[in-house]
Amino acid sequence: MIRKATLLAVLSAALFAPMVAATPSTAATSASRQTVTVSLASITPDVPTSQTDEIKFTGTVRNDTGAPTPAQRVRLRYTPQRLTDRASMAAYAADQNTATLPGNVSASSAMDIPPLAAGEQARWEFTATPVQLNYRSFGVYPIAIDVAQYGVPVYAQRTFLTYAPPAVPKPPRNKLAIALPVIDQPHRATDGSMFVDDKLSQSVAGRGRLADLARVAQVAPKTVTWFFEPGLLDDLDVMKSGYTVKTKDGEESQPASAAAGAWLTSMRTSLASSPVVAVPYADPDVTGMAHRGLDVQPNRAIQLAGQKAGELLGREVKTNVNWPPSGRLDPDALDLLSVSDAKVDRVLLDPGNLPPQPPVTFTPDAASTLDSVNGPVTALVADPQLSALFEPKGATSVLLSTQRFIAETAMISAEQGQTSPRSLVIAPSRRWDPNPALVSALLKAAGRLPWLQMTTLESIKPSKASVPRAGLAYTDADRKDELSGKYLKRVKETWEKAQLTAEITTTKTRSSFDAAVLRLSSSAWRSSSRTGRALTKQVSAAVDDRLGKVTITGAGSDRPRKSLAGSDGVVPISVKNSTGAQISLYVDVQSNNRKLLQVKEQNERLTIGVGQSGTVPVPMNATGNGDATVTVQLRTVDGKAYGEPVRLTIRTTGYTGIASVIVGAALTVMLAAVVTRVLRRRSERKLARAAKNREVSTA
Description:
This is Glycoprotein. This protein is of the alpha/beta class.
């Protein structure tokens, strides 16, 4: 009989081989091979606590073969052996081989499904109890629901069931902090109302990404910590008053966005009592900046973040916690953050950035301590598997994700060697696209599980449960992910030019281009450098335009020359201020031909009012005749060059030497005339006496 049964099973498997479902990975590339699917809709209760709890399983079977199927049977498969660790859980979930399903098939927890037409589905349900499944102690147990035809499984859905009877001692209640990001990429170049795209209008409406984040915020517990990128809030604030979108053909005006205003209001209301942190404005690539000599910009990004987020959310927003791009930084970036005005003393990191040393087989405590140039910094390391459940990569269901979350956290509390509570941190990727229903279910589960205690991110600190860490691990691959040196060089040049527009003013206010230049350094351009370069060109052009509003008058092609009236004279240099603010500067003039023209050094500061011109008299000395050139450079009061230098031509005449020749010649002519007159008079006197003598002798 055994041989006949075995032979029948083999023949049945061969007969129905075309109907056998592919594994999920294969199904993703060849949907035609997937046949009959079974889905789980509910497991109630999801955490049984006594031997007699009736666990109800419900779901559906669907025929996707394209042809009618024979009668089938849906069954519960189980094993009384608990999973031993999280690694075995991961291996079980990834294994899609029907031959390795749990070995026990429940005879009572099953349901027959009649033949299904192509595309037809049928609902199923059955029950089981822990005693029927032979569960005896707290733990995570693998289960599966399979669809069998003639006793042969053709498809199965794996999941976990956590059994939590009263235990002595009780499992430790681990602290759980959840960080949820609200981070996007910049959508403007400068601070005006011109947007480079209209993606935000789609994101805040309907089922858009930001709209979904707002839905999550409405139901999230007050212990969840929210990380906002203030540049996003800034963009939405502009949109609510009307804006313009840059298009291929020019510009397109958009009306005021009611959705943007409603989103901001919703976030302010929903998170009024929740901890909120601002990442640096525009989410700059801090590690890349630290490696390229842009040391000032991160501090300014943190300052601007606190200012903008506080203003637009209407509350105090902390900036002493940093969540770096990709969750990774190195000691250089850590030092840069620690010495900022906000004194960043807490960082949220990816587990690969701060691995345990030596490696451990259990789940390490999330908190650790790092050394920086400004003292100790608390490092919080996110749990990768728990974080991944908040944004699953492949197709899954809310139920399966919730069951996995329950099982993972239960397994952590049951790990061998744990005697005191540990801290756990969940942090999905920073630009995630959440499923509100899934996130809501996971948050609710976290709040009711007896082995978890929801807490804020700020409350997690290093403790006795902390494990030694290897220090910040920052690889060559991490360096390659940064914004390139060539790209950041242009950003740095634009920043330096932009600072001049503020340094030249008498009030020394902040540059109005700070936010614009920080947008250029956004980590979003790591994967989109082309967009970043386009924005850099726009911002650089805007900065040049502002610099050009302070001009040296009379230096154009229409007035190419100035004259020096004498060998020692004064040439006036005039500067016009069209910036809209009072300015103060120096005019630096240098001769390009010192043998022909010398320029005396000037130290007189020139202050020019709004819309006015100022003139500096520049003493010069010419040693000959001809044209000489000078270079005129405007400088800030700190001596920095402002704008491009201007060349002026000075026409010299050397009047002093010429005058000497003229005076000498005049004296010679005058002396000759006097001598001639004297000789003439003497001759006339002699002739008169001779004539008189002749008259006397004749008489």
